[in-house]
Amino acid sequence: MTQNSLTQTLTDIALRAENVSVYYGSTLAVKDVFLDIPRNQIVAFIGPSGCGKSTVLRCFNRMNDLIPSAQVNGRITFDGQDIYDRKIDPVELRRRIGMVFQKPNPFPKSIYDNIAFGARINGYQGDMDELVERSLKGAALWDEVKDKLKASGLSLSGGQQQRLCIARAIAIEPEVILMDEPCSALDPISTLKVEELMQQLKERYTIIIVTHNMQQASRVSDRTAFFNAEATHQGGKIGYLVEYDNTQLIFSSPQQDYTRDYVSGRFG
């Protein structure tokens, strides 16, 4: 590989996890994860419950810092910079790496203020009306709410609330969006809308999605990471990364037997 191609390869990586392990107190939850997240792609994390998918996801914007007993070992870089370096401000990191949670969680404010809230906190000096409209359009929600921006965000349907949360995330202009099972509480029609939205958003953002829905992973993602868990003598579980590849290969010709068994429905 030439130096130029190596540089290009590194430039194309938004996030990199190197030998990452996560502890809660003295309990090892996830071990030895190596992952490269390419820029402007959708990466899906799949695997059975308790295998560490969401734990790893939360490492990428230091949400695990909010759990007092959590400790992250190894190295995670964002645009080549170690995000756990003492000089890194976690709040600024979370602005650049936004998050959408499993259950829609609009603020008990108007639709307009849900979008404007983060921008105001971050000292946004531009045209707020334009930002709100642009963010809602970016989340494919503008046409449905443009005549009721003063209404409570809590008055929207579940699917609309989740798209409002996505609009709120992109309003602060992140580079990466983390999605922790964003469709698990939604009906099939709302799920389809969010999936279509993800395809549009990857033109501007890098997206990592945790999902229990293998059909969803196969539909929306470019790359898929399959996690599994091994039992400990104490009766707990330790999550680990089994296989990570292009989504088509993970679902059609995986390299590992565990992956093949999982995607074919033999366990999970």
How would you characterize the overall build of this protein?
This protein is of the alpha/beta class. The chain has a single domain, classed as 3-Layer(aba) Sandwich (Rossmann fold), CATH 3.40.50.300. Helix content is 36%, strand content 27%. Strands 5-4-1-2-10-9-3-8-7-6 form a 10-stranded mixed sheet, with helices on both faces. Helix 8 links the parallel strand 7 and strand 8 (206-210). Helix 4 (111-121) packs across helix 5 (128-138), helix 5 (128-138) packs across helix 7 (158-171) and helix 7 (158-171) runs parallel beside helix 8. The chain is globular, with a radius of gyration of 19 Å. Mean pLDDT is 92; it is low at 1-8.
CATH-defined architecture = 3-Layer(aba) Sandwich
Helix content: 25-40%
What's the number of structural domains?
Answer: 1
| Largest sheet strand order | 5-4-1-2-10-9-3-8-7-6
- The secondary-structure class comes to alpha/beta
* Strand composition percent: 25-35%
Uncertain residue ranges: 1-8
Q: What is the terminal-to-terminal distance?
A: 39 Å
Oligomer: single chain
Number of helices: 11
Q: How would you state the average pLDDT, rounded?
A: 92
According to CATH, the fold-level topology is Rossmann fold
Shape: globular
How would you spell out the order of helices and strands?
HEEEHEEHEHHHHEHEHEEHH
Largest sheet: 10 strands, mixed
CATH level-four homologous superfamily name: P-loop containing nucleotide triphosphate hydrolases
Find the count of extended strands (DSSP E, 2+ residues).
10
Rounded radius of gyration (Å): 19 Å
